[in-house]
Amino acid sequence: MNAHEKCAEASVLCKESEKKALLEFKHSLQVMDSLGDDTLFLWDTEECCFWHGVECNSLTGYVEILDFSLKSWVVAGTISPSLLKLHHLTSLNFNSNDFNGSLNPEFFGSLKKLKLLDLSNANFRGPIPSLLGNLSMLETLRLGGNGGDVTFRHNFKKMFSVGKLEWLSHLSRLKEVDLSLTNLSNANDWSQVISHLPLLQKLSLRHCDLPSISSSSLSLANSSTSLTYLDLSDNKLPSSAIYPWLFNVSSNLVSLDLSSNHLKGPIPEAFGNMKAIQELYLSDNLLVLAENQVRGDSGLNEIGKLPDFSVLDLGYNLLNGSISTSIGQLSNLLVLRLAGNSFDGDVISEAHFSNFTYLQELDLSYTSLTLKFNSGWIPPFQLSQIKLCSCKLGPGFPDWLRTQMDFLLVLEYLDISASGISDSLPYWFWDKFQGLPYINMSFNQISGTFPNNSIHIIQLDLSSNNFSGPLPRFSLEFVVIGTINLSKNKFNGSVSPICNVNDEGSLALLDLSNNQFSGVVPDCFGSFSPLTALNLGDNSFSGSLPSSLGYLISLEMLSLRGNKFSGVLPSSLQNCAKLKFLDLSDNELSGEIPMWIGQKLSSLVFLSLQGNQFRGRIPHQLCGLKNLQILDLSVNKISGTIPPCLNNFTSMAKKVSLDRRIELHLLDEVTSLWRDS
């Protein structure tokens, strides 16, 4: 029910005292939408129950709910104590905002009628105040995700921290708790506290540096019947610490996530006693299978006896050996992930999948499994995600994939890269797979050409194959960031069709390197501002570099090496201030090396102008490239002395000619930016 519905009968009941409190609260905030406009400017009408984010009781007119979560606008600033004047407030939700400050203990500890408090992903920092234990009516507490900007998983400082969790045990009405990305390394009482929350249904302690469970807490585990969702992923919990507590903490667990811990050894048979379990995530551990088989008395076989089991994630463990057809006992399975294990030489046949009527996601990537199906096999399932990278599917193109596109809106992800296919692309492929958001068929020996009509994609990787012919016209989804990688094939002709790529969507990566393209690169990059990586290297392009490259203000990697480009560098390139990797080697470029390279491209890590016709002196402004690790100006017509300041590069790794392996490594690093974003 929205604010207008709740207040339909209360349009004259907005309390003046509460209206004033809300206006005081507004003055302590900065609220902006995507255009930078204040979205609370409408908070000046008489009826405060109609204001954005405010909901009132339809009978009394008292404000009961403030919800600023997941809006199209962002709240920043401080939370005014004036909200304490909202004596009937039961729900306070600031999820996904930017407060960048600590919690006021007295303020939050005084909101005695709150049933829901959601401060998750709101950039709070410092300790979580124990005065939250005063909120005896609280049923939902979400404080997760206040770990700042997590860019590198193992190198971030958690903003929220907690000593003891004893205060949490006073909130006996709690049904949901989320403390994910909170530093709980000193909360040795966490497991005991959980046992004192009899109504708890959902608990998320992901990535909290949880300490091991003490032996004293084991006797307190109460086999709760209420806890159904438990997420302890991405901690460092060993098997010996978690298993004894886990198998006694709840008899009705439906979803359990223990991924990215330190679990070792066989999968315990006790998982088979969790009769209500439907989702089990055990990826990124060190688990093995009993007797190296998914059969007999192994724990996985016990899991197979659970009738409602829907998600099994055992990816990236130490599982090996063979997979028995008994895995088909999981007849209600929706998701099967066994990626990153070592089933070397094992063969998967249709017998393994005969009962998987409801399967939606199949991930067997990096397992070296051989998928061998009879000709004409029609799977009983309709997959939305197919992830079979490094499996052995070839040498023929897997015909069963044709059946997965009978319902186009279902399949959204296809990865059959490095799967040993050496065949021509079937005639039906582009008709069936037109509009599929993600296609990766790289590192095979697939041949074929594009159809004459437009190719509708979001992410397409056909690199390292034998495709040939001209480029088609690509079209992207509206407001979607797309990627196109056609490198290391035999495509030829003009690349002018790329000019139409950004008519609707936005392209982040375009790699057409190592093909047989020729002619002049069209000067049409004015609408490509989101582009992060552009690689046109090792083709037969000629003519001047297009000046519209200067519009690529987000560009971090540009490689035009190994072509026949001529003329001087366009001065517009100095606008590409984010460039880290610039390779213009092995062309016919001329003129003097521009001073602006050292003045404007200060983020450069890699710079190669090798094998051109540059003349004159090396500009001393290059000494301003403090991040530079590789510089190659060899095989040009440069004269004069080397500026002494080049000896002062503190980041320089090598002052020698280009090492192709390093180039590829840097390219992979830049490419990973768009994959992880």
Characteristics:
globular; alpha/beta; 24-stranded mixed sheet; single chain; Leucine-rich repeat, LRR (right-handed beta-alpha superhelix); nine-stranded parallel sheet; 677 residues; disordered N terminus; disordered C terminus; 11% helix
- What's the pLDDT, averaged over the residues? 84
What's the story with the biggest beta sheet? 24 strands, mixed
Q: What is Rg?
A: 30 Å
By CATH, the topology of the domain at 534-674 is Leucine-rich repeat, LRR (right-handed beta-alpha superhelix)
Number of helices: 11
- Helical percentage: 10-25%
The top level CATH class name of the domain at 534-674: Alpha Beta
Dominant shape: globular
How far the N terminus sits from the C terminus, by CA atoms, comes to 35 Å
Beta content: 15-25%
| Low-confidence parts | 3-11, 148-158, 290-297, 654-666, 669-677
Tell me which CATH architecture of the domain at 534-674 applies here: Alpha-Beta Horseshoe
CATH superfamily of the domain at 534-674: Ribonuclease Inhibitor
Beta strands, count: 44
Q: Strand pairing plus helix content: what structural class?
A: alpha/beta
Tell me what the structure shows:
The protein has 677 residues and is α/β, with parallel strands linked by helices. The chain has a domain at 534-674: Leucine-rich repeat, LRR (right-handed beta-alpha superhelix) (Alpha-Beta Horseshoe). It contains eleven helices and 44 strands. The strands form seven sheets. The protein has a 24-stranded mixed β-sheet. The chain has a nine-stranded parallel β-sheet with strand order 26-29-32-34-36-38-40-42-44, with no helix packed on it. It has a three-stranded parallel β-sheet with strand order 6-8-10, with no helix packed on it. β2 and β3 (63-67) form a beta hairpin. The longest helix has 17 residues, at 660-676. It is globular and about 80 Å long. Mean pLDDT is 84; it is low at 3-11, 148-158, 290-297, 654-666 and 669-677.
